[in-house]
Amino acid sequence: MFYHAIVFLPLLGAIIAGIASLSQQHNIAILASIAGVCLSLLLSCFAFVEIALGGQALTVEVARWIGSGDFQAHWTLRFDTLTAVMLIVVTGVSSCVHIYSVGYMSHDKARGRFMAYLSLFTFAMLMLVTADNLVQLFFGWEGVGVASYLLIGFWYHKESAHTAAMKAFVVNRVGDFGFALGIISIFALMGSVQFSDIFANAATYQSHVITVFGLSMPALELVSILLFIGAMGKSAQLGLHTWLPDAMEGPTPVSALIHAATMVTAGVFLVCRMSPVIEYAPLALDIITIVGALTAIFAATVGMTQFDIKRVIAYSTCSQLGYMFFAAGVSAYPAAMFHLTTHAFFKALLFLGAGSVIHALSDEQDLRNMGGIWRKVPVTYTMMWIGSLALAGFPFFAGFYSKDMILEAAYAAHSGPGILAFWLGCAAALLTAFYSWRLLILAFHGTPRASAEVMSHVHESPNVMTLPLVPLALGAIFSGWLGYEVFVGHDMAAFWGDAIFILPGHDALANAHHVPVWVKVLPIILAASGVILAVIAYIVMPSLPARIALLFAPIYQLFFNKWYFDELYDRIFVAPSVAFGQILWQRGDKGVIDYYGPDGLSGFVKRSSGMLTKLQSGYVYHYAFAMMIGVVVLLSWYFSGFGR
Amino acid sequence: MISSWPILSVVTFLPLLGVLFLFLIKGDEASVARNAKSVALWVSGFTFFLSLNLYWGFDSSFSGYQFEEQANWIGTTGISYHLGVDGISMPFILLSTFLTPLAILASWQAITHRVRDYMIAFLVLETMMIGMFASLDMLMFYLFFEGVLIPMFLIIGVWGGAERVYAAFKFFLYTLLGSVVMLVCMLVMYQMTGTTDIPQLAAYDFAPALQFWLFLGFFASFAVKVPMWPVHTWLPDAHVQAPTAGSMILAGVLLKMGGYGFLRFSLPMFPDASAYFAPVIFVLSAIAVIYTSLVALAQSDMKKLIAYSSVAHMGFVTIGIFTLTEQGIDGAMFQMISHGLVSAALFFCVGVVYDRLHTREIDAYGGVVDAMPRYAVFFMFMMLASVGLPGTSGFVGEMLVLVGAWKAAPWVAVFAATGLVLGACYMLWLYRRVVFGKAEKSEVLEMPPLDSREIVIFVPLSLLVLWFGVYPSTLLDIMDASVSTLLSQLNSGSFLSASLR
Question: CB–CB of B374/B448 below 8 Å?
Fold first, then answer.
């Protein structure tokens, strides 16, 4: 019951909140959802101690689900270290966001419904991380997708909001297309979707081959790549990233919880969870590394040109997810999970801080209309500093430990993709620091650019919004230092147990502790340089950015327009699909099938029998009826004649 | 399990008894209409209640036919009155008896003229549907199978929209051509075997070369009913013209006749031909999934959009059936039941707003959520079930079909899985345009919220869709033994299919 409760308490909270919000009982809804999630957090802490620190992995059966022949997928909860880490991250950030939302959404008429959605999301996310088979993981995967859809489109009156919601769902479906095929191909290969079976037998399928469309591929490579396509969708990796910046249309607590700390990391979680399979797929690992590295640098270049405060952080999230992926790609899964955890704290902190800024400035999100408010919002200002320091990886903040570990592991992998990832990651680190301080300076410093009216209303957020920032800030400061030894240090093997599998010989992580000093120091120097550049560009010489933008106009335009991905996809996929559908309908259904089929036939009938007027008189069903009776009479005659 | 009373006959013909009552109603037009509605609802409700006995009394460990009834019909001809159900047909009977009262309730206010005739048509339709699924005699099956069309013609033709004549005619042409060919095949089979008893025919070994032709003959009829591409074009017109309740039954039950026919006739009687033609069916079905999904994207009429989505979903069904794997057939069965519930609910969703604004044009709506928040919730849920969200019934069928398809041929699964993406595109886009946004049209803002009658229709549909999504064993357990038996019949004939190739 204890383990059931962790997962199902948020669902209970969501149901109560949902029902209460139907009759506008917002306080009940708020209480129920917060209680559900906070209790779940409390239990998760116990579970973490028992499972991760105590080394007791276990599974809990709940109920039967889908059983058809040898295809068996049932509701079962799996608790191992990987799950336990995610439990803490999910319920921890979710609790903070729930409480923060009480303040942030206090003026919204539908705040009860909002809380219900948040709890529903938490439940789906917990189902995802506790899944014991791929199909249940897919349940959670789609569940968080729907919750994300509902929350992005929460302000459904806004055209941009429900457009973004739909875009998020559809782009994710493209990833799910790969994921679903991955699941069924694993089943076809191994005869099970159960993790325990898959992990135990993966090694024996190394030489198997799957042939699709005449192309033969090593089975494990194909399976891993298909699963990674799913991960790319959910974690907004290059190519399937376009939904994430638009998802910022949702209320800011949603961005913090779903689009920074938890849901978007599900792809990373999936890759780590499937490490016993992916480890045998060297090509897939290289692809993961390269896609991750490209995403890290791509998103950073876009992030430094955006003016919407939330979009800057969204691209930052995208970039940091890229780091996690290339860590996983060089088999440094513990480092990926480490960064996932620290990132959850400081990125949620940054988003909630940004929400606080937006709140203070009467819903202004454009950095160009901010500035000069740091004295008026001291708590928020401090929090944003802490978050930025952690994000940029300054020594002894959380990001310092996890990001450096990733870069060192990439360097220590001594592979082509690894080195590529290392250098792109270093470049992205420079940009990360640059855009973080660009954001800090533009939002808080300089002369106020908001209207006097708005400036007069600038105020620090209420306690219900600032207090939840405290635990996140503590996490952003200390989680790296606290977690280092167990996640990626000496106690690593005991901590992870069987939850993560690394093939002997894939020793990037082990070697990461013995890289040259310059590799360790370089990221710090780059981060410091990024800050200095930002200070030069936005405080010392404020005219510089515009001049550079003008000087390198083509590159600036490319970055500012997000590398034209949206325009490209619209031209290649969206518009042609609709046009093609129109053509199929008008030319295919009406022009060919109907023209030569029923219409042609009926025209023939009309012409040949002169029934035109009768057919149009509306009595065609009489003919139908007569025809049926005729058939029956014919049959009776035939059979009775035959019988005699 | 043998029941002491002829439960199948009772369930089948009870609605006809109700028709008698309907004829007896006297009085002025208003009171006739009122009473006719009540009688029809009570009769169909009671039929559903009785049909539940099939579920309670069903022995799911037994793979043969249950609740069997057999009586002499036409002398010593080998033609008999033979009813019975197994795990394949029983769920469809429950689906029919479940949807009929809901459909009658859905017509409560929408139908204003010739109400009694309308209710008669619905009850006759119910008898025909149940009889079709319960028949274990080929001749009976044929009579019910074709008989279903008569009340449906009438429902579309009398109570339909402006273009009802064209729609009914198209429906009729397609169906008739298919049926004639099937009838010829049935006569051939009868001449060869001297019986029309379905279990006996299933046990008969037809020569592979003959199977080839017989399969095609049955295929002509079933493919139209499913409908498969390219004989699907009657469906959008029929749906658009049919009244809401007609669409609910058409999509909910009548489209399942083709799939059921494949499972009851084509697979067990022509196993070699089924295996031989499977690749053709895969191609047609894969085209159906992609083609009709794209066409659905181009629609501006809500009902047409959902009608095209039905063709895409039924493409999954035909793929599943002809994978000839346990997961594929289980998935196809599940998909049929699920689609029966979800599409009925979606057509009702259209009907609800049609009753208020009298248009099906998507552009006429927008911002419906403001006027009808609960409607938005139900519509959202059904929309998500339609795109196969895990936790709803839509997912289980699709997943199992994909598993079976990959086993049969991975490329089929790849094409079918594109339906996951395209389905999300057209359904979410539909929902967005109808429900979300700011209601700017005053007539949209003035739409009254769902009344209790409409909620009474939505709630049971939603609960079942959720239940089957969370605990599909309710259905899978019933089907299991029968599907396994069907598969073992197929495998015993597989050496023949090799020679046929």
Answer: no
Q: What is the DSSP letter of B364?
A: G
Looking at the predicted structure, is the pLDDT value of residue B499 above 60? no
What is the DSSP annotation of B186-200? HHHHHHHHS--BHHH
Q: What is the pLDDT of residues A452-467, one digit of tens each?
A: 888 888 888 888 899 9
The 10s digit of each residue's pLDDT in B234-263 is: 888 888 888 999 999 999 999 999 999 999
Cα separation, B125 vs B128, whole angstroms: 5
CB burial readout B122-147, b (16+ within 10 A) else e: bbbbbbbbbbbbbbbbbbbbbbbbbb
> Are B146 and A597 within 8 A, CB to CB?
no
Cβ atoms of B183 and B150 closer than 8 Å: no
Do residue A185 and residue B406 have CB atoms under 8 angstroms apart?
yes
SS3 call for A71: strand
Residue with tokens 């949702």: A250
Where is A61: in which H helix or E strand?
A: strand A58-68
- Cα B185 to chain center, whole Å? 24
For residue A459, what pLDDT is reported?
86
pLDDT of residue A212: 82
- What does the pLDDT read at residue A99? 94
DSSP calls for A141-168: HHHHHHHHHHHHTSSTTSHHHHHHHHHH
First to last CA, chain A: 72
For residues A626 and B46, the model is more confident at B46
Secondary structure (H, E, C), B131-174: HHHHECEHHHHHHHHHHCHHHHHHHHHHHCCCCHHHHHHHHHHH
Q: Taking CB atoms and an 8 Å limit, are A625 and B153 in contact across chains? A: yes
Residue B338 near residue B422, CB atoms below 8 Å: no
A544 pLDDT higher than 50: yes
> pTM, whole model, 2 decimals?
0.91
The verdict on a CB contact (< 8 Å) between B164 and A618 is: yes
CA distance B158 to chain A (A): 9
B411 vs A184: CA distance, rounded Å: 12
The conformation of residue A369, written as its DSSP 8-state character, comes to: G
Of A22, A69, A638, Cβ closest to residue B327 = A69
Please enumerate in sequence order all residues whose Cβ is within 8 A of that of A417, keeping only pairs 6 or more positions apart, or say none.
A286, A289, A290, A293, A326, A329, A330
Sign of CA dihedral A526, A529, A535, A538: negative
**B101: part of which helix (H) or strand (E)?**
helix B90-106
**Residues 6 or more apart in contact with residue A637 via CB below 8 angstroms:** none
Contacts of B438 in chain A (CB under 8 A): 157
Burial tier of A104 (Cβ tally within 10 Å: 0-12, 13-18, 19+):
buried
Between A110-119, A351-360, A611-620, the lowest mean confidence (pLDDT) is in A611-620
Q: Which residue has better confidence, B9 or B490? A: B9
Any bridge partners for residue A217, and if so which? A210
pLDDT in tens, B217-232: 999 899 988 888 888 8
- DSSP string for A570-615: IIIIIHHHHHHHHHIIIIIIIIIIIHHTHHHHHHHHHHHH--HHHH
Decide the pairing of beta strands A215-218 and A209-212.
antiparallel
Rounded Cα gap, residues A279 and A500, in angstroms? 10
CA angle B257, B260, B261 (to 5 degrees): 85
Q: How many Å separate Cα B156 from the centre of its chain?
A: 17
Could you say which of B77, B157, B298 has the minimum Cβ distance to residue A642? B77
Among B220, B22, B2, CA closest to B120: B22
Residue A74 to residues A64, A67, A84, Cα–Cα distance (Å): 5, 8, 21
Q: Based on the number of CB atoms within 10 Å of its own CB, is A84 exposed (0-12), middle (13-18) or buried (19 or more)?
A: buried
